[in-house]
Amino acid sequence: MGAHRFYFGRPFSGTIYFFTFGLLFIGWIIDLFLIPALARDADLNYSTGYINYNTAWVLLTFLGIFGIHRFYLGKWVTGLIYLLTGGLFLFGYIYDFWTLNEQISQINRRNLL
User: Fold this and answer.
1) Which of 53, 54, 60, 86 is placed for a possible disulfide with 64 were both Cys, Cβ 3.0 to 4.6 Å?
2) pLDDT tens-digit profile of 16-63?
3) Torsion-angle region of residue 54: left (phi > 0), alpha (psi -120 to 50) or beta?
4) What is the pTM of this model?
5) Could you tell me how far CA 32 lies from the centroid of its own chain?
């Protein structure tokens, strides 16, 4: 359903995969060959550090409408807002699918300083 595309920092193709069932499952076959390159590209583009990408993505995927991933990122105010509004009526939840990697990378870069 495109979750791997979001994880690797490809939100546009992740959205297309989501609405087309992985390009009618043909995209899955293509991704068997592309995943190693996507992983290398993501490693180069995003900063590692205190916040773990895997943990944040699992929290977003399964508990995102409750804002648990926001609490993990240290964003307590927006975490409470997500908790009380169902992830800002799901729009914030979708926004975080598009931007989570950059949010984590920004926090990790800030913590290095």
Assistant:
1) 60
2) 999 999 899 899 899 999 999 999 998 888 888 999 999 999 999 999
3) alpha
4) 0.84
5) 20
